[in-house]
Amino acid sequence: MEEQKQAKQQIQIDSDILNTLSKAVRVSKKKGNLDRDEYKKCINASKTKTFFLLFEDALEEFAKLNDYEDDISTASALLKGVNYTIKDIEELCLILSKSYANETTSIGIFISAAINKIIKETDTIVLDFAGIEVNYLGYYLTRGNLIIKGSVGGYTGQSMQSGSITIHGNSGDATGRSMKGGSIIVDGNAGKYTGEFMQFGSITIHGNAGDRTGYSMEDGSIIVDGNAGKYTGEFMQSGSITIHGNAGKYTGEFMQSGSITIHGNAGEYTGHPMQIGSDILNTLSKAVRVPKEKGNLDRDEYKKCINASKTEALFLLFEDALEEFKANFFYHQNFSTASVLLKGVDYTIKNIEDLCPRLSLSYANKTTSIGIFISAAINKIIKETDTINLDFAGIEVNYLGYCLTHGNLIIKGSVGYDTGQSMQSGSITIHGNAGKWTGGFMKGGSITVDGNAGEDTGEYMRSGSITIHGNSGDATGRSMQSGSITIHGNAGKCTGGFMQSGSIAIHGNAGDWTGYSMEDGSIIVDGNADSFTGDSSKGGEIKVNGEIKGIGGNPKAAIFCKGKKVK
Fold it and tell me: What is the DSSP string of 403-425?
């Protein structure tokens, strides 16, 4: 009995060290069966081995998340306070490539987080994955130099800010996507969408580049020593692309500004549709432009197109957008595509309102595409005092109000998921139910739901307010950073889980794990709270005016029941 007490005391004293080890070790500690020999064995483990155990932790956490930005944040949090070197990272790469060959994205996210934590301006890291093409290497690189032996997967150098990446092989799709600075050199070939949305920096490809290289790039430079694929520089806004070989069809299509230099041969329709010479035709559908290219668009047909209603022109543009959306994986890419297509197009709020029921009849299964396109159309013309009434004839459309900057949206009926995501200002009123992720990442404005709201409502919200007159699903307010959520009905499980600040008011009852791992902020429950209230919380305040079925383990939040502090 005395020996067991001493062992527990030793573990408690050195708990900071244990916190850097694997969950497998920590779980044993919780079970009380981590004996002295096992404890010493853990402490004496090599840094690379500890690193590997932490990756296993990260892999479990990644499985719960749906976004690579969540993954990089999770990995960074796990690595906080862990002591390791560049050599440890280099040795870990070989271990991971043998043990987790199918987890190329998870490996890349974890390695990138590990690099970003310790790398200095003059440091060089050599990564060797023994033939495994890992994704997301150099993600958000801020400084230093990465040298990668062999080929890599997709999204290498995504959103990198500075430093350099040299790839001694080929690179996958979307290399240098949204990069803000630094340089990337690829000794071999590069995949599709290289440099898409890049804002600054340089990419040099010594081999060939795939389709849509430089797609929607805002600035920076891309040099291709070999050939470039179709649609190179499509929707390009600024910057320069130099191709020493040949360029594919439709190079420079829809480009707004910038320069493309081709030392070899240019494919068909280079500069299309800029060479057509008609600003009006540029706003019409590809279906209209193609007959003109063939030389059989007669005067009557031309007049018919010009005199088409603005709503019809919007509908044709949506069909164009739908074709472009097929090539994109992320919703923000589609939003950008729709915004560029709508540039220079003349239409009104009434045209948008008329378009909604037509789209719902013709494209009932394309709810995400409809929502992204309508949101882009709204953002282009809406003013502070404008109100838009949207009716989709019973179709629950996704992503309505995405990135809304101002004005008022009134939606008749229920909506799908991600309504009001990343909205900045204005208001959205939903006369029905709302799906999952309503108000996720919102930065301002207000959302009112007359009915119920789905799970993860208000996740990661940074400001603004959400009011739900019905019930809300699980994990409402998950990881919210600020703002307020009011629920007039009941709330599901894990409401306010991981919340960092802000307030949640529940006029009904709250489910299990309310305030789970919350760091700060306040949760008020007028009714009852279920089991595990405040479990693993690190701070903040939970007030329950009814009964609390059970309080969770290790709560550090201030918990009140019927006005009396109980924890």
Answer: T--SSEEEEES---S-TTTT--S
Q: Residue 560: beta bridge partners?
A: 543, 565
Q: How do 183-186 and 202-205 pair as beta strands?
A: parallel
Question: Residues 4-46: pLDDT tens digits?
Answer: 444 333 333 334 333 434 443 443 333 334 444 443 344 334 5
Cα separation of 169 and 179, whole Å? 20
In total, the chain counts a number of residues equal to: 567
Q: What are phi and psi of 373, to 5 degrees?
A: -65, -45
pTM (two decimals): 0.51
Q: Which of 93, 106, 101, 203 is nearest to 149 (CA)?
A: 93
Which residues 6+ apart lie within 8 Å of 19 measured at CB?
A: 26, 81
Side-chain-facing half-sphere of 189: CA atoms under 13 Å? 11
Q: Characterize 521-553 residue by residue with b for buried, 16 or more Cβ atoms within 10 angstroms of its Cβ, and e for exposed.
A: bbbbbbbbbbebbbbbbeebbbbbbeebeebbe
- Residue 400 near residue 378 (C-beta atoms within 8 A): no
- Helix or strand (DSSP H, E) at 390: strand 387-391
DSSP per-residue letters across 235-290:
T--SSEEEESS-B-TTTTTT--S-EEEESS-B-TTTTTTGGG--TTGGGS-HHHHH
User: Amino acid identity of 421?
Assistant: Q
